[in-house]
Each structure stands twice: as structure tokens, then as C-alpha cells.
Amino acid sequence: MRLLYQAWRDNDLQAFAIALGIAVAVMIVLALARFIVRRVLAAVARRTDMVLDDIGARVVAGTKLWLLVPVALNAGSSALELPARLETILSALALLGLVLQAGLWATHFISSWLETKTRARESTDGDTLTALSLLGFSARVVVWAVVLLVALDQMGFNITALVAGLGVGGVAVALAVQNILGDLFASLSIVLDKPFVVGDFIVVDSLRGTVERVGVKTTRLRSLDGELLVFSNADLLKSRIRNFKRMNDRRIAFTVGVTYETPPEKLSRIPLVLRAAVEASTRTRFDRAHFKEFGDSALVFEVVYFVLDPDFNTYMDIQQEINFAILEEFLRDGIAIAYPTRTLHVVGAPAAA
Hints:
By secondary structure, this protein is an alpha+beta fold. The chain has three domains: 2-176, no CATH class; 187-243, SH3 type barrels, CATH 2.30.30.60; 250-333, Alpha-Beta Plaits, CATH 3.30.70.100. The chain is built from eleven helices and eight strands. A five-stranded antiparallel β-sheet has the order 4-3-2-1-5. Strands 6-8-7 form a three-stranded antiparallel β-sheet. The longest helix has 38 residues, at 84-121. The chain is elongated, with a radius of gyration of 38 Å.
């Protein structure tokens, strides 16, 4: 009260009128600026498909004029003779209002950005929404922690000791829950880097299954046998993951063995028969077919081709068709498919003396 009385005594009514006029003019300018910028961004957002203008319109809409009142009062105080301490208080209040408004802008930006991301993922990757929500919550906590520290600093508190204490406490908490934090950051890595998504068929070491859910701490797979496989996110990212859903095509190599009694002229036709069997399907791309080696009980031919669809059932259907075609052609040409055999040559016993 003493500071206000001193300010009243040191200034006349004309000075107070000028200060009030400046403060009102600043508030009118700020209100008009918010209105114009908001209308312009809203008009641009309606005409374009860009995301940034939509987010900008929402951020501007989050402007609170009552937080800018201290800014207007500080501007109006320039026309008055005020005690140094009162000027310091008005400046601190103006900066505090700006910091709080910046915190609101940052919060609206984070919420709007996450809303656009979650809206795009709702129909295709809904299980990552929890991780995105957690990411947004963490970002908002960081923003308001910074706002709180700046506010305390403007109010005259020594935040150096507070920051040091928070640092020591944060280290202690991090050591206590390091496994949980490791899984948490691993889940964020999975969401952002996308080594796999829900619905992908993956192999982790000797375990394999379809991804059903990517959670904050664990990822769940449904195996081919039906059981539920649960992996810690941190352990999962440390493993070597094979994602079969991301295959563009599937490379297949198989062998066919025929008997040693097969005549050479029929042997020379076998690569052509194998190629024709593969190329009969429109969903394959032939690579090669060769007489590979002399096996223990068969002459071995190797075939390599690509299935143009990564689906495993599709591959098995095509392989079945190829096998039937090869068998029919071999039977037609009188080529015998070999199987493990062993021939014994018995030497006659020597005559008795």
C-alpha cells in the first residue's frame, strides 16, 4: 500500500489518464491481433489440407487476454513516475503473464499435434494411441515444469538449489524405476521408428507370432499355436527381429533328385521342365534351375524362384502347384524321382582248397 500511495502522490490525474489510455490501447491492439490472426489462419485452414495452419489456428485460439493484462499495465506505467520496487513488480508480473501464456500456447500446440497423429492412426494402428498419449503427457509436464521454474525465479526464489534438488531426486527415482523407464522409452521408440506394427508377423529369436498389441511396458504376440507371447519392450528391441509382413516378395529354393539310371538326354531336359513348372504361375518370378550335384543316392537339381506375394499361404499354394506339375511331367517322360537307396555288391566266396 505504501508503494501505491507514493505513486499516487508523485503523479497527477493527467499522468494517470495517459497511463490508463496506453494500457487500454495495448489491450485493444492485442485483442485485435488475436482476432485477425485467428480469422486468417482459420480461413487458410479451410482452403488447404495442411496440418500446420490448423494447429496454428488452435494455438492462437488459446490466447487468454486476462494473462496479457499485466503486459498492458506495465506498458501504461511508462507514463508514470513509480518507485523502483513497484516498477520491478509490474515488470515481473508482465513477464509472468507472458510465460504463462507461452505455456498455454505450447500446451495447445502439443495437444493439437497429437490429435492429428491419433486421428490418422485410429483406424490402422490404434494400439499406439496409449504411447502417443503418454508422450503428450510427458511433453506437457516438461513445459509446465519450465514455466513453474521461470515463475519462481521472477518471484524472487532461488531456483538453483531447487533445480539441484530436483536433479538429485530425479536420479534417485530413475535408478529405482530404470526397468520401467527402459520399457517406456522402448515403447516410444517402437511407436516412432516402427520396426513393426500391429498385425505384422515377426520372429524374435526362436519365437514367432502376429503382433496383437504394443503397450507401454510390453508387446504381445499371438503364436501360430495360439498361445500369447509377452515380450518386454526393452528386451524386444535388444533382440534381432525378422518382420515377414514387410517382405516385398519371398525367395524360394528347393531341390529335386532323380535316379542315377536316368539317361543323359532326359537329364538335359529337366532344367527346362522345372522352369516351365515355375513360370506356369503368374505370381512367380523364375530365377534359375541347374544340375547342382551328384548326391549319395540321387542326381540333384536346384530351383530358385520368387513368390511375388509375401503371404505364407500363397507361397504354399504355389509350391504345391509346382510340385504337381513337376511330378506329372516326370511321370510322362519316365523320369524316376530318387529316394534314399543303397546297393550292395556281394563278391562270391573263394573255392575250398
